[in-house]
Amino acid sequence: MFRSFLHNSTKVVKNAGSKHLANRTVSPNFTRKAKIAGTGAAFTTTYAAAAAVQQDKPAVCPVNHGKTPEYKYDFQATKAYVESMKSIESDLRKAILAVAEADENYDGYGSKLPAFVRLGWHASGTYDADSKNGGSNGGCMRFEPESTHGANNGLGQAREALEAVKKQFGDKITYSDLYNFAAKVACEEMCDGTLHIPFQFGRSDYASGSHFKIDRIRLPDATQGSDHIRQVFTKQMGFNDQEIVALLGAHAVGKMHLENSGFSSSQTEGLALPWTYAPLTLGTHYYTTLLEEKWLPVENKFNNNTIQYENERRDLIMLPAEMILLTDDKFRPWVEVYAKDDEKWRKDFGEAFGKLLALGVEYPSK
Predict the structure, then answer these.
(1) Catalytic residue of the set 122, 211, 251, 257
(2) For position 132, what pLDDT does the model report?
(3) 102: containing domain
(4) Greater confidence, 93 or 65?
(5) Which ranges constitute the DSSP H helices of the chain?
(6) Angle at 171 between CA 170 and CA 176, to 5 degrees
(7) Is 122 a catalytic residue?
(8) Rounded average pLDDT over 150-170
(9) Omega before 62 cis (within 30°)?
(10) Do residues 162 and 177 share a domain?
C-alpha cells in the first residue's frame, strides 16, 4: 500500500458489501462475531522476546540461511516444507481468524484482519524488479530497520497477534509465510468467501535484520501523482494500470490514523477517518465512494498543513494519490469498470494481490 495508505489499525464488517451502503455509518460498538472458537489469549510469549531469540540463531525452516547473507537454497527441503503445509493449512487459517478477533475492543471494531492485509502488503511491497531484492522473503518485517520504519507504524500490533499463531505452530511455518498467508486469509474473510487469492507456501526466514539490504522502504508516497505511482507499482513491482487500480480496492477497509500515517480528520485532532462507509468489508464500494462523493481539498493542520481530501460531511478521507485515479485517463476507466462489476474486481484483485505476495520469493521447482 501507499506509505500513507493503510498506515492504520483497521477492522472488518461482515456482509456489508456495496449493496449495503444504504447504511451510511458503522457503529463504533460494532463487533464482527467470530466464526472460530477460541482466542489464542493463553499465549504469553511476546513478539519482541521471540525476535530477540531468533536474531541469535539460524532460521530452522524451510531453508537455513545461517548468520551470513550467503546461503544455498535447498529445494528439496523447501519442497518437503511446502508439502507439509497441506496438513495444517486449515488449522492455520482458523488460528489466524481467532487471534484477529481476540481483542473485542481493538480500534472500536474488534478485528485485526485489515491490519493483517497491511502487514502482508508492506512486507511484500518493498520488492524491486531491477535489483531483484526486497519483498517478504526472509521475514525481515520482524527486525529493524524494517519493523521500526515510519512507513510501518502500527504494524507491531499485527505482528504481536500473529506471534501467538507462530508459537502454536512453531517450526511448521516460517514468519514470512505466516505474515503473507494471514493477509490472504484476511482478504478472503472480509469478502465472505467470494474472493480467492492464489498462494503458495515456501518463503524462508532470515536469522536477523542484517539480511535486509535495500537502501530505503520502497512503498509509494500517497502525496504524489501518477508518475510516482507508476514508478513504484509498474517499474519497481511490475503491475500494469489495471492491476494498480484493482489493488487499491483494498482501501475499502480500515481507517487513516494520525499516529501511523500522519493523516486523519482535519477537524478533530486524532480522529481516525475511514475511506468508505463500510470500512470493515473488502469490496467495490471503494470505487463507488470515490466516484459518488464530492471530495474537498483541505489542509490538515495536525499534519503540517498537508493536503488531503474529505467528503462534504467530513467523515471520509481520500489522499492525493487516490484522487489521481479520477483524473488520470488510464486509471479512471478501471475505476468505473470496478464500480459496476464486483465479480470482475474480485477476480482481478485476487490475481493482483496474489502476485504482490509472491514478489521476490524463490519457490521449489516442479
Answers:
(1) 122
(2) 86
(3) 29-219
(4) 93
(5) 47-55, 75-85, 89-100, 113-124, 156-169, 175-190, 226-230, 241-247, 258-261, 285-292, 320-327, 332-340, 342-357
(6) 95
(7) yes
(8) 94
(9) yes
(10) yes
Number of neighbouring beta carbons within 10 Å of residue 273:
24
C-alpha cell recorded at residue 29? 460498538
For residue 333, whether the previous peptide bond is cis, meaning omega lies within 30 degrees of 0, is no
Q: Report the pLDDT averaged over residues 126-141.
A: 89
pLDDT band at 91; cut points 50, 70, 90: very high
Q: Rounded to two decimals, what is the model's pTM?
A: 0.82
Asked if 231 and 199 sit in the same domain, the reply is no
> Is pLDDT larger for residue 358 or for residue 32?
358
Mean pLDDT of the residues in the chain: 81
Calpha distance 235→365 (Å, rounded): 26
Output phi, psi for 285, to 5 deg.
Answer: -65, -15
Pick the catalytic residue: 275, 295, 334, 345?
Answer: 275
Beta strands in 191-340 (DSSP E): 255-256, 273-274, 295-300, 306-311, 317-318
Q: Is the pLDDT of residue 57 over 60?
A: no
Helix (H, G, I), strand (E, B) or coil at 308: strand
In this structure, which amino acid lies at residue 59?
Answer: A
If asked whether residues 254 and 311 sit together in one domain, one would say yes
